[in-house]
Specification:
single chain; seven-stranded mixed beta sheet; Aminopeptidase; globular; Rossmann fold; 2 domains; about 450 residues; 15 helices
């Protein structure tokens, strides 16, 4: 969909195969005065885009005016939770109505993924995003049922019921392009007019685009990426960085239609998060992405900030100067600012050491999606106190997402060799994302050819 702004009015168009399939115009106050669509699905996508903008800009409501309540648009709006409102002159026309969505209604938040748990608690639809009989779900349920039964040999005491998930590529799309951290780096270096990158950062951005296109990382790429990314936000305060991340992930996705970046959680995986929480497990996220960025991205998922273990960038007090941190006493007016240095990158073996330091015990369930998670899953599966259960998500769906059987072959082979349960996006997911989210391109490399801003 394309959004065009002009004065106090903005338009949104939906296209398919070069043909316009829907059109919407709204003005200040998120009042939709013109809305036409070929079908209910298109109408719903158009309205969702306005709802997302309104929610992210702190609006109190969205309204749709002078529509046939039983027509294509009216049905789509009512399915989204809009209700009839009175008081507008256009409401008095015969056969038309004005429909409104109040943003204090938690339902709209559940649609958009803002400041609320990702799922509603429903017993009947607990695993609705999974295909019937999906092996990973059945294996997890059997493990959990054993862990909760004091008479079962697999019983796990409540204090040891800990599960850990990787974030990018495991519960959240890493096609933004790349994971959230990569996408935000490309925005900062290539498109942020307020930032002047150095030569190494520019070169890294071009190298990163090649890696996204091919899936092949050259020698030393990860080290250069970590070094350049930390330096890209040097001098920002914690509050400034949090806002930068929040603003970035709240924008419409450049690689998917029908979603912002913060609303690209894999619905089946998040259903597992909720299932484990409801079953009495503490769920942690262990990510190679910077910690504050992870916490900001997870806001509203129900996973609290203190259950995030992630890469750390060095912080200091703004007034400290050259004084040793041990001897410096923070002043009330000091701000915490990023130094541009890295403390620890939570990837590979570092995930294990950070979990050991941060938790003081081994988790009993782990989920990952790549080689950076091998050590973490080994750590969990070899738990000497309780038999651990591990799952590896394979992004092999090239029809509904940007997956590839070829690129994930080595990860699948390693997981099978280790005896970890395979989760196939292609075979096990009934749907990948909530709502009408779909890839914008056939191949994610097309984004860079399109000239679209990341």
């Amino acid at each position: 969909m394309a959004v065009v702004s002009g004065g106090s009015e903005r338009t949104v168009r939906a296209e398919e195969g070069g043909r316009e399939t829907g059109f919407l115009r709204y003005s200040d106050g998120f009042r939709i005065d013109v809305l036409r669509a070929d079908d209910e699905e298109t109408a719903e996508r158009l309205v969702r885009s306005v709802m997302a903008s309104a929610a992210y800009e702190g609006a109190g409501e969205v309204s749709v005016h002078a529509v046939d309540p039983d027509g294509t648009v009216g049905k789509a709006c009512r399915r989204l939770g809009f209700s009839a409102s009175g008081g507008c002159p256009c409401c008095q026309r015969e056969g038309t109505a004005c429909l409104t969505m109040k943003f204090r209604d938690r339902y709209v938040l559940s649609l958009l993924g803002i400041d609320r748990p990702v799922f509603q608690k429903e017993d009947d639809g607990r695993f609705s995003a999974w295909r019937d009989g999906a092996r990973p779900v059945e294996e997890l349920r059997r493990f959990v049922e054993s862990a909760l039964d004091p008479s079962d040999p697999g019983f796990i005491p409540p204090e040891d019921r800990i599960a850990v998930f990787d974030m990018d590529g495991t519960i959240l799309s890493e096609n933004n392009p790349g994971d959230i951290e990569w996408a935000m780096y490309l925005r900062r270096v290539l498109f942020d007019p307020g930032y002047v990158p150095d030569d190494e950062q520019r070169d890294l951005a071009e190298e990163m685009i090649k890696v996204i296109r091919t899936g092949v990382k050259g020698p030393g790429f990860t080290q250069r990426k970590n070094r350049c990314n930390a330096r890209a936000f040097k001098g920002m305060s914690v509050d400034e960085y949090r806002k930068y991340v929040s603003d970035f992930i709240s924008e419409p996705s450049s690689t998917y239609e029908g979603a912002s970046r913060r609303n690209l959680f894999y619905e089946p995986m998040m259903q597992l998060v909720r299932y484990l929480e409801e079953s009495g497990f503490e769920v942690f996220v262990c990510s190679a992405t910077e910690a504050l960025s992870v916490r900001t991205t997870l806001a509203g998922t129900g996973i609290p900030p203190y259950r995030v273990i992630a890469t750390e960038y060095s912080l200091t007090a703004s007034g400290r100067g050259d004084i040793d941190a041990v001897n410096y006493v923070m002043r009330p007016y000091d701000r915490l600012i990023y130094t541009g240095e890295i403390v620890t990158v939570a990837s590979g073996m570092n995930k294990v050491t950070k979990l050991a330091h941060g938790l003081g015990k081994r988790p009993v369930i782990a989920f990952g999606n790549g080689s950076g998670d091998y050590s973490m899953l080994t750590y969990v599966s070899s738990n000497p106190a309780h038999k651990g259960k591990c799952f590896m998500l394979i992004a092999d769906d090239s029809e509904r997402d940007y997956g590839s059987v070829e690129r994930t072959a080595s990860v699948r082979a390693h997981a099978e060799e280790e005896g970890w349960t395979i989760i196939s996006m292609k075979d096990d997911f009934e749907r990948i994302y909530d709502g009408c989210v779909r890839p914008r391109y056939k191949d994610i490399g097309e984004l860079f050819d399109s000239g679209r801003k990341i």
